[in-house]
Amino acid sequence: MLTLEGLDIRQDDFRLQADFAIPAGSIVAVIGPSGAGKSTLLNVIAGFFAPVSGHVIWEGRDLTGLPPAQRPVAMLFQDNNLFPHLTVAQNLGLGIRPDLRLSTEDQARVAQALIRVGLEGMDARKPATLSGGQQGRVALARVLVQRRPLILLDEPFAALGPALKSGMLDLVAELAAETGATLLMVSHDPADARRIAPLTVLVADGQAMAPQSTATLLDNPPAALAAYLGG
Amino acid sequence: MAARPVPLSLRPVTHWTGWVAAGLVASLVLLPLLAVFWRAGGGSLPGASDWAALRFTVLQALLSALFSVVLAVPVARALARRRFLGRGLLVTLMGAPFILPVIVAILGLLAVFGRSGIVNQALGWAGLPPVQIYGLHGVVLAHVFFNLPLATRFLLQGWQGIPSERFRLAASLGLGPADVFRQLELPMLRAILPGAAVVIFAICLSSFAVALTLGGGPRATTVELAIYQAFRFDFDLGRAAVLAVIQMTLVTLAAVMALKLSRLDGFGRGMDRPPRRWEAELWRLRVWDAAVLFCAALFLIVPLGAVVWRGLPGLMDLPVQVWRAAAVSVVMALSSSFVAIILALSLAHLALVRHRIEVLGLMGIAVSPLVIGTGLFLLINPFSDPARLAFGLTALVNALAALPFALRVLVPALRDISRDFGPLADSLGMSGLSRLRWLVLPRMRRPIGFAAGLAAALSMGDLGVIALFADPERATLPLEILRLMGAYRMDSAAGAGLLLLMLSLLLFWIFDRGGHRDVDA
């Protein structure tokens, strides 16, 4: 279970509060107007941004003071999820060992992850030679080899076409189900949430609200969300 | 989209290496200065001739920086948007005058612009009065010759820092050359130009050999030259120390200005594909760029050609001590380049979180090598024979002198890497050596290669501290050339000058090439 305990996040005039828990193994969408703090919330959980007060707790362990790499978190950013100077295999390898000293077993894991995301035989390629969708798959394969119980997606597939994006989201959902990971994904498209996330956290008016059923929330949106959805 | 959050704390690498480097640089600069002060008994007030030297120094440095930077814009732009046969060679040549050993370059400039040089011969043939290279305009001319290529290289890196996707976007929006200039190139220039100008200003503030050979006299004396004269002819350490303090204040101010003026923000990154410039594919722009490149090449190549022409005859039978000196110089250049890169990388990491650190790096040129050398002499003399440590000291001081240039190149590159890939590296736990090996070094190959090449070539051509310390057995090549000239063995000196030129260029080329391998990687 991921618990956000009395989180208070501030940056200049920006303020965001969160106080709720997310059951382990669930897939949760994070939805809300632009600038409400969806990305910031993920960055606090991942350890890139410090809250003024409050705690981030995973399975009873307080993560609040830990650096990003020591948290049980794998995160995909909006961009720059791959190192362009490294091969696909090296990019994956970094998810296992930051110094890339991989054992035979590690290399086998890399190969399996590539097969799992449908990129068999691409290990020696550089990211620039891959399509956007393939790059997304490489990033997901790295999340796979990272074996972290908590996966955070900060709209890494926003630049992909609708069909491609849906495909990627389905793959994400499958991978999360296979590994039993808890998944939080920022989205500005309600369809994404309906597609794979049974639960949704609404971020609006300086508050990240406790997760609710996605269908219920989207069918009867509160005022802040209704204004954002424009419907 | 929410604003990008700032990282929890910037701890990309442990900073102790940066602090050690900073401490080393600070003590290498400050301790010798203190030693000079101590020996001089506190120093004396500057006189009228000192103020005249100060005025001349600032004036010539201002003019030199202005001309170098303004002329570099069209040259760098032409290089940035044209792909043609020999472009790589021209870019390498752009690095040549700056890394050219000063004595050799001045010989080349004299051969072109001197009393019986090519220009005056042409003028005389046309019945026009000769031009005079000595004085303010000669000093500025030489400084522009040295620094126009440096400014061009800095700007070219700025241009290469604009992601190719931006030009593609501009082309798809139908932006013309003027629009692209305003939207893409001007913001880059605004970020790079002031810093480049102030760096060149600072370099010219402490320029010594140019003022010695082309300036001189009470009306064209720089502070650095005045320091040399105070040391060499009067051995007036007090006055030299006061001048050194003036010099250091001046350049430190320039350095602070450089950091204030250069805003290295904005541009994102592209996937490292070489850019194509649709908007510049106009006939008149092609002609313009070709003319710009031709003039620049002429200005830079002809003096170099003169050095080669005059050096060739002597190159055939160089005295054995020249070869020995060449070997000493190469080993020294490699050592000092290595030290400079280690120091610069450490300081650059620290400069990401402590911006003022870059000022410390600039102190290497703020204090004149002669002051540092004399201070070190005074510090070491009670304990050991300074001549025995000449090699190490010279390598260290040369590394210090190369540091500002290395930092100028490395800090912005490192900042980009941290901004683009810092979060990913942090989330993967890449720190210390892993981060250096798999992120910083591979992505910084280009700037590191360039900086290492600069440092090696600068050290190769340096004639400063070594002159104070070295015994005849351990002379460097520039010192050996000076001796040959002093002994009126001009053919040998010219030959050795050509050898020095070739070795400097070769070292620079090897490093710079190394950085360019696998550019698309």
Brief account:
The complex is a heterodimer of chains A (231) and B (521). With 231 residues, chain A is of the alpha/beta class. Chain A has helices at residues 38-46, 88-93, 104-116, 132-146, 162-179, 190-196, 214-219, 223-229; strands spanning 2-11, 14-22, 27-31, 53-58, 61-62, 73-76, 150-154, 182-186, 199-204, 207-208, 212-213.
Structural class of chain B: mainly alpha
* Helix-strand string of chain A: EEEHEEEHHHEHEHEEEHH
By CATH, the topology of the largest domain in chain A is: Rossmann fold
Q: What is the element string of chain B, with H for helices and E for strands?
A: HHHHHHHHHHHHHHHHHHHHH
Question: Which stretches of chain B are low in confidence, meaning pLDDT under 50 for 5 or more residues running?
Answer: 1-13, 263-274
What number of domains of chain A? Answer: 2
CATH architecture of the largest domain in chain A: 3-Layer(aba) Sandwich
